[in-house]
């Protein structure tokens, strides 16, 4: 194989071996960052919703109760209602972010657990899952990252979620008496679930990987091109010129000179060849004179 071809092939092999290693390495890093980003978003969403629930229970409800003793204003006193309303408004800007108090037997049917949530709810009940579940969920409108936390019933909850006959009239009037009651103390009734879209950061990571690979390939090809030019100019051309000069000299054209324009190893080689040519010429002269 010619020098230039050999060098190009070696460089291409280096490229082909390094490309998957670099691509896989950077995909790993990018994907990890994307997942970290998704986790942070989900944590943020969960913290916001828990903040809303906490504020409603600790500040809003007592303040309203003081003003309206004995009354139950669902819109302002139910942490569930407030959190649901807040996330509904958030979704106008962030359509695929949501929070749901997914419940097997809810007062408000918007909180009814779907098949996936029921499965997780039952796993919490059976103790297969403990305090939290985090993971991905595939749906027809894309992939979500989900955090779920179980909620168990306390004695105070039964005031509204126990016997419908004992529930505040506002609750019975709004939701009827058919569902949302009969909860038992200690029973896990709900999984508070946060959903955040998971494919956007991963798609961004993929896109970044494609750009990165393209840039790497571009730089590699450019370097390959530059090195190729350098090899041609600095090694191959001088060698070809030496070969043709040496051939001419071997055929007796002693006037030919070994020429180089650079001042490097090629120059030393040319000088050595020139000295050899001079010695040869002298030797031939001596031979001729005999
Ligand atoms: C004063 C009445 C009242 C009390 C006490 C109460 N809730 Fe509720 N709860 C409601 C109402 C009203 C809703 C429906 C809100 C809505 O429309 O989203 C609700 C909804 C829920 C939901 C969503 C599922 C559903 O039924 O729609 C969960 C979960 C829940 N409550 C848990 C609890 C827990 C846990 C406690 C005790 C720590 C509790 N609630 C105490 C009134 C109450």
Which key phrases capture this entry?
single chain, 290 residues, alpha+beta, Beta-Lactamase, four-stranded antiparallel β-sheet, 4 strands, rod-shaped, binds heme C
Physical arrangement of strands within the biggest beta sheet: 1-4-3-2
Tell me what the CATH architecture of the largest domain is: 2-Layer Sandwich
Could you tell me the strand content as a percent range?
5-15%
Unreliable residue runs: none
- The number of distinct structural domains comes to 2
**N-to-C series of helices and strands:** HHHEHEEHHEHH
Which structural class matches the secondary elements? Answer: alpha+beta
Q: What is the number of E strands?
A: 4
Short description:
The chain contains eight helices and four strands; from the N terminus they run H-H-H-E-H-E-E-H-H-E-H-H.
Topology:
Layout: H1 3-67, H2 74-77, H3 79-93, E1 98-103, H4 115-125, E2 133-139, E3 142-152, H5 158-161, H6 169-175, E4 188-197, H7 199-250, H8 265-289
Antiparallel strand pairs: 1-4, 2-3, 3-4
Helix pairs in contact: 1-3, 1-7, 7-8
The chain binds heme C.
The site of heme C has 24 residues, from helix 3, strand 1 and helix 5.
What does this 3D model show about the protein?
By secondary structure, this protein is of the alpha+beta class. It folds into two domains: 7-205, Beta-Lactamase, CATH 3.30.450; 206-289, no CATH class. 63% of the residues lie in helices and 12% in strands. The chain has eight helices and four strands; from the N terminus they run H-H-H-E-H-E-E-H-H-E-H-H. It has helices spanning 3-67, 74-77, 79-93, 115-125, 158-161, 169-175, 199-250, 265-289; strands spanning 98-103, 133-139, 142-152, 188-197. The protein has a four-stranded antiparallel beta sheet with strand order 1-4-3-2, with helices on both faces. A hairpin with a 2-residue loop joins strand 2 and strand 3. Helix 1 (3-67) packs antiparallel against helix 3, helix 1 (3-67) runs antiparallel to helix 7 and helix 7 runs parallel beside helix 8 (265-289). 17% of the residues are buried. The mean pLDDT is 94. Bound molecules: heme C.
């Amino acid at each position: 194989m010619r020098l230039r071809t050999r060098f190009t092939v070696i460089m291409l092999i280096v490229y082909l071996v390094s490309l998957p290693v670099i691509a896989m390495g950077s995909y790993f890093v990018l994907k990890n960052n994307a997942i970290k980003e998704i986790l942070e978003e989900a944590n943020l969403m969960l913290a916001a919703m828990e903040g809303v629930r906490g504020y409603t229970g600790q500040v809003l409800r007592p303040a309203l109760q003081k003003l309206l003793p004995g009354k139950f204003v669902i819109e302002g006193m139910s942490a569930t209602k407030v959190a649901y309303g807040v996330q509904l408004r958030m979704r106008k800007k962030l359509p695929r972010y949501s929070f749901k108090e997914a419940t097997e037997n809810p007062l408000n049917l918007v909180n009814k657990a779907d098949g996936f949530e029921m499965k997780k709810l039952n796993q919490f009940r059976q103790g297969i899952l403990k305090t939290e579940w985090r993971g991905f969920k595939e749906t027809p409108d894309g992939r979500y990252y989900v955090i779920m936390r179980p909620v168990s019933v306390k004695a105070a909850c039964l005031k509204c979620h126990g016997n419908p006959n004992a529930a505040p009239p506002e609750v019975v009037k709004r939701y009827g008496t058919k569902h949302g009651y009969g909860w038992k103390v200690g029973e896990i009734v709900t999984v508070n679930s946060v959903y955040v879209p998971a494919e956007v950061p991963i798609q961004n990571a993929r896109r970044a990987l494609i750009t990165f690979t393209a840039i790497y390939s571009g730089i590699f090809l450019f370097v390959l091109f530059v090195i190729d030019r350098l090899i041609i100019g600095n090694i191959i051309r001088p060698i070809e010129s030496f070969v043709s000069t040496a051939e001419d000299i071997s055929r007796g054209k002693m006037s030919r000179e070994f020429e180089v324009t650079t001042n490097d190893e090629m120059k030393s080689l040319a000088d050595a060849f020139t000295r050899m040519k001079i010695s040869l010429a002298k030797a031939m002269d001596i031979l001729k004179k005999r």
